[in-house]
Amino acid sequence: MSKVQIINGNETAAMGAKLCRVQVIAAYPITPQSKIPETLIKYVESGELEAEFIRVESEHSALTVCISASTVGARVFTATAANGLAYMHEQLHWAAGARLPIVMALANRGLGAPWTIFNDMQDSISQRDTGWMQVYCRDNQEIMDSIIMAYKICEQLHVPMMVCFDGFVLSHTVMPVEIPDQKQVDAFLPPYVPHLQVDGPDPININPVMLADPRANAQGVSCPSYMGFRMRLQETLESAGDVILNVGREFGEVFGRSYECLLWEYRTEGADTILLTMGSLANEASLAVDALREKGWKAGAVALRIFRPFPAATLRQALSDAKHVVIFDKNISYGNEGATCTETKAALFEGGLRPTITNYIVGLGGKSVAAADLEAATIKSVEQKGQVRTPQWIGVAV
Amino acid sequence: MTTKVMQLPEEEYMLPGTRACSGCGLSLAYRHILKALGEKTILTIPACCLTVLHGLYPSTSVRLTNINTAFATTAASATGIAAGLKALGKTDYTVVGIAGDGGTFDIGIQALSAAAERNTDFLYICYDNEGYMNTGTQRSSATPMGAFTTTTPGTKFEHKKDILAIMEAHGIPYMASASPAYPLDLYDKVVKAKNIQGTRFMHINIPCPPGWGYPTDDLVKLGKLAVDTAMWVLLEIENGVLRLTGRSRSMARSGKKKPVSQYLQLQGRFKHITPEQIDYLQDWTDKRWQRFLQRHELSGTA
After folding, report:
1. What is the distance in angstroms between the Cα of B210 and the nearest Cα belonging to chain A?
2. Phi and psi dihedrals of B74, rounded to 5?
3. Helix (H, G, I), strand (E, B) or coil at A310
4. Chain B closest-CA separation from residue A235 CA (Å)
5. What CATH number does the domain containing B16 carry?
6. Which candidate from B42, B76, B80 shows the least CB-CB separation from A24?
7. Which of residues 66-105 of A touch B (CB under 8 A)?
8. How many structural domains comprise chain B?
9. Range of B204's domain?
């Protein structure tokens, strides 16, 4: 029987990992994620969770422990934020290149320097090219559900996934979360079967040096090149959307909450003005849409749930009737603009869609963003017919 | 009880046709290490000469499963393997991390120190060729004073880092240093280390023809001279007790030790060493040797 508990995002993530019966956990403390490993170690010490918990000396080692434990066949879990994720960067590439189904909880936080402990998405967006899938959560229930789905998706695709949620905004905010029944999770998520057998009859040299051209093995069979392996990772991610949708639908059938979607839409029917966000900011965007609708605007909101693989076709569909798209990014690719803005423009180009696009950089380092800010920014963008210089910064008094 | 040559396992885990350089000390050491480890072993290796020795995908010259890992991560990778196997109830494997001196003394020391502090159940082997030889002979903190490298084009001014002292400070159950010039001593130490629980650390001297500048057929000669001059010492430290082994133990008995200059003059890397630096190296070697002798005598096995 599922039950509802009032818990914060970090406790939710830990409980999600426990329900997935993770076998090896390695994590290093960093605000605002520390409660995740703290909660998990309590489960392990009390015997509620049968797992090896490795108290590593760094995030680099945390992910390395997960990589090697996953290679030998264990289901693994880690959690981090901000500079911790940046410190993992080398191993993020390694985990994806090694095709390991590692699931990571990420409490989104701004990067130093200068220091901030508060929320933005610069950390995970900076890792978008590592080959990891990225899902962004709007509330704590989505953290729980996304972690359970993540293992099922990752273990089918042999690709790792970050379950991203806003630091403090979700990690430290309690809200009611329906805790799935263990038996139902067990039925939904079968045990992990690795794609290599390290203890099989034949010894293997895993992730050795590869050349740019295919080479034959001892039996004369041509084996892929380095580039061939990279192409396979890309092909897998190109097909990942279907797996994500299937798992999301199946999750809904078992647990009553369907995730058969790559993005969330709110009041988009007949809308000509769309507010585009990710993560918990979707909640403020919905409120802004309500306010705009009351004023007679045909406004709607779209929130990207999956950022990698980028749901370009779905997004194009969602924006096909929009005359104005207002994009709010809690990140910036310095010297250009917010990452979701760039990606959205690229997605629209392919469909020949040309709405006005305005990009706002918001909420860096925990700067609060209210629904009224999003509403005002939208009005300004549309009234100026998208001629606003972008990216614009909201909430910075110069 | 020392194993005799004829008692070594016939099983070869390192096959002919490796990509190691000719006259490589690592090839000789590795062959005996793998014989000692045997089948139930999972190796993990960072980017280093050993990656090259293991060969290019899809073929390999080593008949044991190896998980390649990033440069800084050998000990963390071994930790993950050990944790994963334990979680799966596969407890009959020896987990072995093998890295060079760069991967141990420099970039990998953080993960190594952490694994040793946790007393992770694995064997860590540092094969020390005293520099970044795989990338073309750059200086590491294991490079001895007076040596030429491409990043110390004049000479190196600093002494080699004392990795044994650093590792001993972690209070791990077993440590040893060995040389491929004495393969039976090396073999016995690996067998012993294999059967001990917790973090075991081995430090192996690896003469390197391109990096050190010596004729490839002088590998064993050079390895022996390193021990005869006490530039390299064969020893074990078990639960805090240090004892000399093999040739180093006989030297302790006989009191005979060759001057370091005999070892230095055979190597191109010391071509431009100054007389003062030779004195410094001799002094450093003598003092270190004395410390080992004193501890060896206290061990009760002298």
Report:
1. 22
2. -50, -50
3. coil
4. 21
5. 3.40.50.970
6. B80
7. 66-74, 76, 90-91, 94
8. 1
9. 5-298
Residue keyed to tokens 């020896």 = B94
Query: Which CATH number applies to A264-393?
Result: 3.40.50.920
Peptide bond just before A113 cis, omega within 30 deg? yes
Give the distance from residue A212's alpha carbon to the nearest chain B alpha carbon, in angstroms: 11
Q: Which chain B residues are Cβ-neighbours of A211 within 8 angstroms? A: 56-57
ipTM score of complex:
0.97
Assess whether the region A3-188 and the region A264-393 belong to the same CATH fold: yes
Domain boundaries, chain A: 3-188, 264-393
Instruction: Give percent helix, percent strand, percent coil of chain B, each to the nearest 5.
Output: 45, 15, 40
Instruction: Name every chain B residue with its beta carbon within 8 A of the beta carbon of A90.
Output: 70, 72
Query: One digit per residue, pLDDT tens: chain A, 398 residues?
Result: 689 999 999 999 999 999 999 999 999 999 999 999 999 999 999 999 999 999 999 999 999 999 999 999 999 999 999 999 999 999 999 999 999 999 999 999 999 999 999 999 999 999 999 999 999 999 999 999 999 999 999 999 999 999 999 999 999 999 999 999 999 999 999 999 988 889 888 899 999 999 999 999 989 999 999 999 999 999 999 999 999 999 999 999 999 999 999 999 999 999 999 999 999 999 999 999 999 999 999 999 999 999 999 999 999 999 999 999 999 999 999 999 999 999 999 999 998 999 999 999 999 999 999 999 999 999 999 998 877 788 999 989 76
The Cα A152–Cα A95 span in angstroms is: 17
Contact by Cβ (8 Å): A100, A75: no
- Is the pTM higher than 0.90? The answer reads yes
Q: Return d(Cα B137, Cα B133) in angstroms, integer.
A: 4
CA angle A92, A93, A97 (to 5 degrees): 120
Q: Which of chain A's residues have a Cβ under 8 Å away from the Cβ of B18?
A: none
A250 CB-near residues (< 8 Å, 6+ apart): A152, A188
Domain A3-188 has CATH 1.25.10.10: no
